[in-house]
Amino acid sequence: MIIPVILSGGSGVRLWPLSRAMYPKQLLSLFSERTMLQDTALRLSSVEDVGPVTCICNDEHRFLVAEQLREVENGQAMIVLEPCGRNTAPAAAVAAMLIAERHPGALMLVMPADHVMLDTDAFAEAITKGRHAAEEGALVTFGIVPSAPETGYGYIRVPEGQGKCGSVCPVLDFVEKPSRSKAEDYLASGNYFWNSGLFLFRPETYLDELERSAPGILAACRDALRLSKRDLDFLRLDPETFAACPSDSIDYAVMEKTSRAMVVPLDAGWSDVGAWSSLWAVQSQDADGNVKRGDVVVHDVRNSYLHSTSRLVAVVGVEDHVIVETADAVLVASKDRVQEVKAIVEELKRQERDEPMMHRRVYRPWGSYETVDEGARFKVKRITVRPGAALSLQKHHHRAEHWIVVTGSAQVTVDDRKILLEENQSTYIPVGARHRLENQGAAPLELIEVQSGDYLGEDDIVRLEDVYGRA
C-alpha cells in the first residue's frame, strides 16, 4: 500500500495578492476547478493500492484543509497540526512514525500540496517504476526532465548516460540553484534533473537514515508525537517539543547524506507554481498568449496573465505582464520580475498592514465574513454561516452589534434569551452581552453585522464556549 503524505505548510508569498498567509496558494483554485490541495489528493486516482491521505498543515489552516479534503477524501484523511513551521524533514518524520504504526509495510509518498502535475498518468507510471526500489529500501525521489536552463530550481545529478534511460537511477549529487551558464551546461549534458521535492520510501527507511544524519530532528519529533493530543478530527503535535526541533528539509537532512538515494525521471508537466509566470506557463493561453481568469476585457494585450476576482479588469496595450485584482489589492508586474513580489509582501508586513495576512473575506470553521465598510467607531460585515454551524458563545468589552438577516434563518442567543430571526428581521447585541449565532436550517445563513464602539478589533472577542475548540 502507498500512503500519500501531503505537506501543506507553505504560504506562497510570490502569488500575492491571491495567496496570503491565512489563505495560501494550496487552498486556492488557481489551475482547475478544484484547489491545489484537492488536486494533489486526487493525483493518485489511477495508482493501485493507495491508502488514505495523511496531511501535515499548520494550525491556522486546519478547518479549511479539513473541509477541502473532506470533499474529495470522504473524511478519511488524517490531519496533523504543526504548532510552527520546521520545514519538510520533521513533517515527514512525524508522518513516517504514524504510518509505520498504523499501516505496517506501507510505503509513503511525500507530495507538496502546491504543485501542478498536468499528466497524472505519467506520474502514476513513474510511481510504479520507483515502487520496487522503495520496497527494497531505497529513498526514491522524482527528477523532473528539464525543458529549459532553469536557474530557480535545484538539480539532481545522475551517472553519465543514465539521464535519458527512463528508469530508476542512482543519485550522485544534489546541486544548488545554478547560474545561467551552469544551468545551460546541465541541460546539454542530459545528466541532470530538476529537484521536484517528491519522495517515495518506506517509513522505516527514512527514520533509520534520519537517525544517522539528523538525530536531533528524530528525537524532537518522537517527543512531539508522544505528547500529541487529539483535538476534534485533528492530531495536534506538542507545541513546546516541536518548537525545539531543528528546522531542515528532507534534502539537507537526509537525501544529501544517504547512500540509498535513487531518482526516477518524471516528465509529467510538473510545476511548483513558484511565481505568476509559472502559473501563466502551465495554463491554456489564447491566440495572443494571454491567460484570462474572471471578468477581464483586453485590447492589444499579449503574453500576459490577467486575473480578476471581484470587478471588471480592462487592460490596453501591454505585453508580458501580470495583473491580478482582488477586493482589496491590485498587483501589476512585469512577467520577468514577478519573483520580486516577495519584496512587496515584506514591505507591507513592515508597515503592519493586513493585506499580506488575510483577504477581505476571512474564513472560519463555521463559514466566513467579509468587511464591506468601516470608519471611526463603526464596521460593517457580511457574514455567511454554513448549515448546522454555530459561532462561539462570546462577548465583547468595547463594541455593540446589530444583526440583520438577509437570507436563511438565525437562532440567536443573547444572555438568557433565545430569538429566531427570519429574513429582514434584526436584533441588537449590547456591549458585554453573552451572545451566539447559529444556523439550524438547511440553507446558508447570510446576515449583515453592524459594529459600533470605541474599539472594533478582532481580539475583542471573549469566547465562553466553542464547538470547534478554539481558545
Please characterize this protein's 3D structure.
With 471 residues, the protein is of the alpha/beta class. The protein has 3 domains: 2-271, Alpha-Beta Complex (Spore Coat Polysaccharide Biosynthesis Protein SpsA, Chain A), CATH 3.90.550; 276-347, no CATH class; 361-465, Jelly Rolls, CATH 2.60.120.10. It contains 11 helices and 31 strands. The strands form 7 sheets. Strands 1, 2, 3, 4, 6, 7, 8, 9, 10, 11, 12 and 13 form a 12-stranded mixed sheet that branches. It has a 6-stranded antiparallel sheet with strand order 21-22-23-30-25-28, with no helix packed on it. Strand 2, helix 2 and strand 3 (78-82) form a beta-alpha-beta unit. Helix 3 (88-102) crosses helix 6 (203-213), helix 3 packs across helix 7 and helix 6 crosses helix 7 (215-226). The longest helix has 16 residues, at 120-135. The protein is globular.
Strand portion, in percent? 25-35%
Dominant shape: globular
What is the number of beta strands?
Answer: 31
Q: What would you give as the CATH superfamily of the largest domain?
A: Spore Coat Polysaccharide Biosynthesis Protein SpsA, Chain A
CATH structural class of the largest domain: Alpha Beta
Given helix and strand content, the structural type is alpha/beta
What is the helix content?
Answer: 10-25%
Poorly predicted ranges (pLDDT <50, ≥5 residues)? none
Task: Please give the alpha-carbon distance between the first and last residues.
Answer: 38 Å
Return Rg in Å. Answer: 24 Å
| Number of domains as seen in the coordinates | 3
Give the overall pLDDT as a whole number: 95
CATH topology group of the largest domain:
Spore Coat Polysaccharide Biosynthesis Protein SpsA, Chain A
